[in-house]
Amino acid sequence: MNANAAGAAAFPGGMGERMAAMEARGTLDVLIVGAGVNGAGLFRDLTAQGLDCLLIEKNDYAAGTSAAPSRLIHGGLKYLETGEFRLVAQSTLERNLLLANAPHYVKPLPTLIPIFSWTKGIGAALRTLFGSKSAPRSRGALLVKIGLMLYDFYGARHRVMPRHSTASRAASLRDLPALTPDIVATGTYYDATVTHPERLILELVRDGLADSPRSAALNHVRLERADGGALMVRSLAGEAAATVRPKIVVNAAGPWIDEVNAILGAPSRMIGGTKGSHILLDHPDLLKELKGRMIYFEADDGRICLVFEYLGRALAGSTDIKAANPDTVRCEPDEVEYLLESLRRLLPKLRFSRDQIVYVYSGIRPLPASDAKDPGLITRDHATPVLEPVAGRPYPVYSLVGGKWTTFRGYAEEVADMLLKRLSASRKVSTRDLAIGGGRDYPKTEAARQTWIAGLARETGLAEKRIGELFAHYGTTARVVAAHVAAFPADAPLPDAADYSTGEMDYVLRHEQVGSLADLAFRRTTLAVTGRLTARLVEALALQAGETLGWDAARSASEIAAVRERLKTFHGVDLT
């Protein structure tokens, strides 16, 4: 493992250079199609074992479903209802491992459950446990208590957070006065949140490249079939292309799995996804009530909703509606009203209205095709169907179906072991205790973090406040970014986003494979999701990106128009 280089590694070479190197090599161990969390996690695992891998993505890293989660790393409390105990055991373990391996982005999240009855829901829960297709409603105190005890039991491995607790109605309302007085009690347990999911995926890719210089990762490329069982990878931004001959293809395209299998000449019907929509609100009064906690609650129809503080905003979600087209999915007005009304009923003393919303988003969960009437009962577990080689397709295709953000490492390990066996290779490294990106050598206490920040401020001459911002953005990789910022001439804060600067953007543009303005605004930074993009800021980012990446005036104008259109169409933000 090249641990020291991994955090600082850039994406080597230009697109054409990387493609030429892959083509010259001829045979490739594994081609991974799709750079969401499952694809990136598998890439990191396989390259750590010394395999030659190519990871390709038609858009940008983490641009699809992996960029539209509830931003939770959780054990799956509700999976206990459907008897998916193995999934809960794996999820709680992986949550605990991520808290240790990615502490710069994965943080503990105390979670409060309002309870509205003492005994309701037991009969419905038992029916669901034994296969009923209707979800329990009105989960009472007894049911919640049993669930939290089981959750503590399954989360015991590598435990890093406290066990659950309960509080009476009176104590709960003293602590959270805005909560509806209809409760009879509350329960509190601990899960985790991921603050920068898109960047965590990027770090998995960079760590994989550092471990295997012969491997490559390409974004903004198209997959095509070629003659003789080969595959062609073509840049969407230019003329660069490469023909590769993989021994194995892994389809990690999420909601696009069936589409990719069709390109590979292996038609399938594996995916039957559901849509999850979220809203972010500028609501200081709500944040004061939450006090850093998440509220995990039942809406009137029995669906599970949540609300918690996310980077200074209140994030509320999510809907769970069957949907098929990941390219057009968006948060619809009725979903916005559903979430707002759920919050009004939960916290009747607070005001909730559309004028508080600064951003909305939606994504397709790549769940297995299912005839379940209630989307919430479709399993969140994963499966890996294999399409064996046939005439004209000499490689097997492994499709990564289902799964969830939290379990990506464990799932990658399972699939990697399957592929290693097929290639007659053996595992060299376990990823179980392997730090990710800026989580490497992360100071463990608040005092240690302040010492680290003060030390880097002295080294670079940057203000401690600025180092603290970089530390929040990149973890310990801030050391590399800070050195770049300190050497950047006339570094200045970005307009309307003073915690980012021109020197920082220069580092990102030069070292993080940015292919579009959207990559920069939506994924390399949190400017979009926190609702801070303004017309002035978008134009400033485009100007700097154009100068650094060599865009002409027409390209820059096109990039600005594309970002503005995406904000308006998919995220409820109109910059006009």
Automatic annotation (TrEMBL):
Give the required cofactors: FAD
Q: Which InterPro entries match?
A: DAO_C, DAO_C_sf, FAD-dep_OxRdtase, FAD/NAD-bd_sf, G3P_DH_FAD-dep
Instruction: List, for all copies, the residue spans of the domain called FAD dependent oxidoreductase.
Output: 29-417
Where is the Alpha-glycerophosphate oxidase C-terminal domain positioned along the sequence?
A: 430-555
**Which Gene3D superfamilies does the record match to this protein?**
Alpha-glycerophosphate oxidase, cap domain, D-Amino Acid Oxidase, subunit A, domain 2, FAD/NAD(P)-binding domain
Q: Which residues form the signal peptide?
A: none
Keyword annotations of the record: FAD, Flavoprotein, Oxidoreductase
What Pfam family is a match, any one?
A: DAO_C
Q: Which domain of life does the UniProt lineage start with?
A: Bacteria
The record's comment on protein family reads: Belongs to the FAD-dependent glycerol-3-phosphate dehydrogenase family.
Name listed for the protein in its UniProt record: Glycerol-3-phosphate dehydrogenase
Species per Swiss-Prot/TrEMBL record: Shinella yambaruensis
